[in-house]
Amino acid sequence: MMTMNQSRVLTLLKDLVATNSENPPGREDEVAKVLRDHMEAHSISCKTVGPSERPNLIFSSHDGEKGDLVMHGHMDTVPIGNIESWDHDPFASEIENGLLYGRGACDMKGPVASLTETLIIYTEEKHKQPLVVLTTSDEESGCSGAEEVAKSGELAGIKFGVCAEPTELQVLVGEKGIFWSKVVAEGQSAHGSRPEEGVNAIQLCMDALRAITADPYPYEQHDLLGDPTISIGMINGGIKINVVAANCEAQVDMRTVKGQSPDSLLEQMNERIYAIGLAERVRAEYIHGKPAVLTPADTEIVSIALDEVERVTGNRPALSSATYGTDCSVLQPKVGIMNVICGPGSIEQAHQPNEFIDIEQLYQSVDVYLGIARKFDR
User: Which tens digits make up the pLDDT trace of 319-374?
Assistant: First the structure.
């Protein structure tokens, strides 16, 4: 069996980090060009799905053929935020004590570099079973790239997936869903010195939020997915301190588990608003949602991933699940791909100033991915 070219992995990662793909606005086309050029230099062809400015790339070891397995990651990153919070240039890939710093280092340009190296080596080994690598756009703002790929049918028939999100090479078998909603309150303005003549929309919104968040919503308990969560993320209302607010809107983030759907949760939220007598002026509305997904622990991809992580690292992970969202929330329910989530780097570094990845773990991930891919060569 062939071994990885560490210099090639590191050089690609540096090129990817240097190529800005902050989302918003995205700019994944520039990262996509870096990846296409890199793969074509090793005679691996690429199929593009979606708009040219925000493409999704599908690479195959067998010139467009599909097997049982796809490995995937995304090309966009969150914005760098306040540059003053960074001790390292977010686009320079500075290395210190075995850690490479930069926006996207772990989330997830490092893992994507690992996937490309995996596919290059696997292709050179001339296996019988095709291996597919997918890189998507717009994961950080709703997984619209994965939606494009799912609709295209290009992955139809693939049974298993490895999502390379940063897990420190732990094996996650599911993720909580997302339900974003807004609570809209409509009051009546009045002079601040005569509040009794108006209806304060901010107060209405606050009362509704208390009712909405007071008690948990029904769900199916599962040890690996844990409990759902709810958080009020934004609130905006009023126009001036001395005017009774006529309008107010709050946005609510719920991380959901099995037994919870956007439709049922929205209905229950509005029922709670109705129960406290505010339905004439306050309502809950849908913003965005993705389902919770879970791959059964006895699925083949789970046991293979555990075996390969143990082989490479010497430690067998305990199964767990993600609190955050990934492209699995699209590829699993809409394409039927049963995923594990396993990648180098820590989710604690994702979206943070001075984001970094451990270079040794980056190299280990290539060994893990190659081991998984080889097991599916049958």
Answer: 999 989 999 999 999 999 999 999 999 999 999 999 999 999 999 999 999 999 99
User: Residue 304: pLDDT above 90?
Assistant: yes
Residue 26 in this model has a pLDDT that exceeds 90: no
- As a whole number of angstroms, the distance between CA 183 and CA 212 comes to 9
Residues 49 and 148 in one domain: yes
| Domain count across the chain | 2
Quick: pLDDT tens for 332-341: 999 999 999 9
Enter the pTM of the model.
0.91
Last residue of a domain, one of 241, 261, 290: 290
In this predicted structure, what is the pLDDT of residue 27? Answer: 81
pLDDT surpassing 80 at residue 277:
yes
pLDDT higher than 80, residue 1 = no
Domain containing residue 252: 178-290
Q: What is the CATH number of the domain that holds 186?
A: 3.30.70.360
